[in-house]
Write a structure and sequence with these properties.
heterodimer; A: alpha/beta; Leucine-rich repeat, LRR (right-handed beta-alpha superhelix); 13-stranded parallel sheet; eleven-stranded parallel sheet; 20 helices; 35 strands; disordered C terminus; B: about 180 residues; mainly alpha; Potassium Channel Kv1.1, Chain A; 2 domains; three-stranded mixed sheet; 8 helices; 3 strands; about 50% helix; elongated; disordered N terminus
């Protein structure tokens, strides 16, 4: 990978082997820009370490025993900008010096209970942000603390040692503009009176934030920080507030309260007396406050009355002219997460969805369902009409009885859609007495140059005649009609682009127009006819010389069989390569119609016999061969000798007739490569011999003479 | 400012193109990858026409609208591209694709990736990331989407109520998460 100039490398290794050593070449890799190492084991470093391009380095759970090699690692990263040390274990180390001149961000998690003590010296001249979370048993020194802008400190520990380090650390951070602390950190700072006196002045601090737990407003350290931050403009107490001292009051109002503090936010607010007291005090003592935001605590959920009472109470508190109390009723995410997100924002120029141009948003909306896309219209004014160009509309009334709502919705969406094309339109609904409305919708999508139309119409209460414009639609490429109704066809039918046609449960009642339908599809490639009912239809499938895939069910074959004189009119399917027969009943393979179609398909290479009603036990589908007792197909369809490579049979039960059919198929298909026979599990279960029978059949089939090699 | 040490060494391979991001990072990428970005391709071809003498990849193509962190992710996406672009034809495949799309992070990351892909005129990437973003909107309430994407609702309450009624069908049965 090093050889392939890897730029981002993320290694997470859990090792047992003591002797593991990362390859030398990794440590001199010139291309690497981002390196994440996560190993629970001793990191052995080579003598030469040089990462000329490395910008971001993360070390997680690394164990290091050696002072020097660690030093080499950090000094080998010349342009490192961001360093994360996540619970690394440093042993026998006195000092870690991080001397990378370009370092902008340093993140340290240090929650391990390690006995070793060491000093961390950071020589980052351009260090901008620093995040620390841990027990602070070690000493941190920054050689150029004045560059720091952003810091986030979470100290966990109450010993004097920790207090000392915390105090020292915070002194180093006196130049930051934004500071995030935890109440524990304040406690550590509060440890001793004399430490408080040594707290620095935060000349640049404008934003102070707390998370995780209640902040003690009576804390001396906190007051000192307020007093020492003359420019503080925004204070966030996300974890909430408490007072540990009785008769707390603000003795000396910090200067920033009178001159700079504009926003206060208090989280986890429960409206108890002491908390209201804090709010009142803050309001009274802040002169330029503009906003006080108090998000409701989660604990208030369901206690609307109480919440309202507290709210009213707060609003009556005396306050400055410009101040507004706002409350937001959703619980906040933890302050820590937000802090880190903010950090990332600062790193990149983060864009928001609102910055994306309209065409992109419209593209995104096209992946949503129609309902979801329409829902975005009330996000904001900009979004109101963005959805109206989506090219795909699907409407499904479903089972629930909300018909009025549904009809209104479809109508409104179609009316508001902009003039651009509606490429896909699918409608699944009850018709009842609304044929004219539905026809109007269909006309509308035809005008929008619909390419794929899927209609599933049911529950007719009045006769339906689909609009004539549909049948001359030039843009239509895919048409699926699942309409349990007699299909009234207009006199002129011309689907000049139609390639895929599926007809399901359609009732055909007129010979002439049915023929017209098929002759009206000159470039049709794929035709499925499933469970259709044929009345008075004599001829079928004429004019379909171009289909490549044909799915027929027995109904269609019967029509053909009854009108034998029409066989002469069956076209030769020069392009037909896939032929599926479907039925809920046994398919009789010797049907003249079936054989004729097969004979008329010289290029056929796939033939399947399947079932559409597998769930009905008795109606097992199987290809049987009743007539022609000598077992010879006469004449053998030409495709059997030239092209037919795959035969699939579904719902096989293995009775005598079926076996006979398989025998004949195998015997006559001379270029066959695969025969797949899927047995009907239900049938065998039903007869209680699931295990035995298929195996027997399999063996028997293998014994059949065959024209070519085959597999089952 | 930080990149004097990062010489792309352009003469080493003729099939490499050097891209320079908004934060002055240099990326050396294979020509096949770079050509997926139509903007880069256009620039590259123009450059060729203008200067016949400058052959191969001696020029650095500036991408002032793309940040290095975003470009790195786009390139890594490019390299995985071939298998991830066919249309899913069954439910299971769709689920794996969804998972794949989820890897590309938060909506914020995705917005960055989308605007970069848009700028680079990188069609497959745009489709992929747009779909990934759409996954985040799917089945979510209006309030959630607003919060999640930082969109400020600027309708008057009665206006919003009116639209909700007009499109009542679309607002039935939405998860409130």
């Amino acid at each position: 990978m090093v050889r392939h100039k890897v730029q981002v490398l993320d290694l997470c290794l859990f090792l047992n082997e003591e002797s593991f050593v990362l390859p030398r070449s990794l440590f001199t890799c010139e291309s690497i820009k981002v390196l994440n190492l996560h190993m629970c084991y001793n990191l052995r470093l080579p003598s030469s370490i040089f990462f000329p391009s490395l910008k971001i380095l993360t070390l997680k759970h690394i164990v290091s025993h050696d002072d020097q090699s660690t030093q080499r690692l950090f000094s080998g990263c010349l342009v490192l900008e961001e360093l994360t040390l996540d619970n690394c274990y440093w042993e026998n180390i006195n000092a870690i010096s991080i001397s990378t001149p370009m370092l902008k961000g340093l993140v340290i998690y240090d929650l391990l209970d390690s006995e070793s003590r060491y000093q961390v010296i950071v020589f980052g001249m351009s260090l901008k942000f620093f995040v620390y979370e841990g027990r602070l048993k070690n000493d941190y020194c920054f050689c150029n603390p004045s560059s720091m802008v952003d810091a986030c400190i979470n100290v966990d520990g109450r010993q004097i040692e920790v207090a000392y380090h915390a105090n020292k650390l915070i002194k180093e951070l006196s130049n930051v503009e934004s500071l995030v602390l935890t109440p524990q950190t304040v406690e550590a700072l509060d440890y001793k009176e004399e430490f408080i006196a040594h707290l620095p002045k935060f000349h640049n601090l404008t934003h102070l934030e707390f998370y995780m737990g209640f902040v003690d407003m009576a804390s001396g350290a906190l007051m000192k920080v307020f007093q020492s931050s003359p420019c503080l403009a925004s204070l966030e107490l996300n974890g909430g507030i408490e007072i540990t001292k009785e008769d707390w009051k603000l003795d000396h109002v910090p200067p920033c309260f009178l001159t700079h503090l504009k926003t206060i936010k208090i989280g986890d607010f429960l409206g108890t007396e002491e908390k209201v007291l804090v709010v009142r005090t803050l309001l009274r003592n802040t002169a330029v406050l503009e906003r006080m935001v108090i998000p409701w605590s989660k604990k208030f959920l369901g206690q609307d009355q109480k919440q309202k009472a507290v709210n009213d109470h707060l609003l009556t508190l005396p306050k400055g002219k410009i101040c507004k109390i706002m409350d937001v009723s959703f619980p906040l995410k933890s302050g820590k997460n937000r802090k880190f997100r903010k950090k990332q924002n600062a790193k990149k120029s983060r864009k928001r969805i609102e910055d994306l141009p309209d065409p992109i948003i419209q593209h995104i909306l096209s992946y949503l369902s129609t309902e979801e896309a329409v829902r975005t219209s009330i996000l904001s004014k900009r979004w109101k009409y963005l959805w109206t160009s989506i090219p795909k509309l699907d409407f499904d009334e479903g089972e629930l009885d909300r018909r009025m709502m549904f009809m209104k919705f479809v109508e409104r969406v179609l009316a508001l859609h902009d003039p651009s094309d509606i490429k896909n339109f699918s409608l699944s609904c009850n018709v009842q007495y609304d044929t004219s409305r539905i026809n109007a919708w269909i006309c509308s999508v035809v005008e929008h140059k619909v390419q794929e139309l899927d209609l599933y119409l049911r529950n007719f209460q009045e006769p339906l005649a689909l609009p004539p414009c549909l049948f001359t639609c030039e843009s239509l490429e895919v048409l699926i009609l699942h309409v349990f109704h007699s299909l009234k066809l207009p006199s002129s039918i011309s689907f000049s682009s139609l390639k895929f046609l599926a007809l399901e449960k359609v009732i055909f009642s007129d010979d002439h127009s049915t023929q017209q339908l098929f002759t009206g599809c000159p470039i049709l490639e794929d035709l499925s006819i499933i469970d259709c009912i044929w009345k008075n239809v004599k001829a079928l499938l004429s004019g379909l010389g171009n289909v490549e895939t044909l799915t027929l069910n027995v109904g269609a074959l019967e029509v053909l069989s009854y009108a034998k004189e029409l066989f002469a009119h069956l076209p030769v399917f020069y392009k037909l390569t896939r032929l599926n027969f479907e039925s809920a009943f046994p398919i009789e393979f010797d049907r003249e119609a079936l054989l004729t179609i097969t004979r008329n398909s010289p290029c056929l290479n796939y033939l399947s016999f399947g079932t559409v009603a597998l769930f009905e036990l008795q109606l097992v589908c199987l290809p049987t061969y009743c007539g022609n007792h000598d077992g010879i197909m006469n004449p053998v369809p030409s495709c059997f000798v030239t092209n037919l490579k795959t035969i699939e049979i579904f719902g096989f039960c293995g009775d005598e007739k079926e076996m006979h059919a398989v025998k004949i198929l195998l015997g006559s298909a001379s270029v066959l490569e695969r025969i797949v026979i899927i047995c009907d599990e239900f049938y065998f279960e039903f007869h209680g011999d699931l295990k035995k029978k298929p195996k027997e059949i399999f063996e028997q089939i293998l014994l059949f003479p065959r024209g070519s090699r085959s597999c089952t | 400012m930080s990149n004097t040490s990062e010489n792309p060494n352009p003469s080493s391979s003729s099939a490499k193109i050097t891209l320079k991001t908004s934060d002055n990072e240099l990326f050396e990428v294979e020509e096949a990858v770079a050509m997926k970005f139509c903007t880069v391709k256009q620039y590259f071809e123009d450059e060729k026409d203008n200067d016949v003498a400058a052959r191969g990849s001696s020029t650095v193509i500036p991408l002032p609208n793309v940040h290095s962190a975003v470009l790195a992710r786009l390139i890594s996406y490019c390299k995985k591209l071939p298998q991830s672009n066919a249309v899913a034809d069954n439910h299971e495949e769709e689920e794996t694709k969804k998972k794949e799309r989820k890897q590309y992070g938060t909506p914020g990351d995705l917005v960055d990736l989308i605007s970069a892909a848009n700028y680079l005129d990188f069609k497959e990437g745009l489709e992929f990331f747009n779909q990934a973003l759409a996954d985040h909107i799917q089945n979510k309430s209006v309030e959630y989407v607003r919060k999640f994407f930082g969109i400020k609702g600027d309708f008057e309450p009665h206006e919003e109520e009116k639209y909700r009624e007009e499109y009542a069908w679309a607002f039935e049965g939405v998860d409130e998460d």
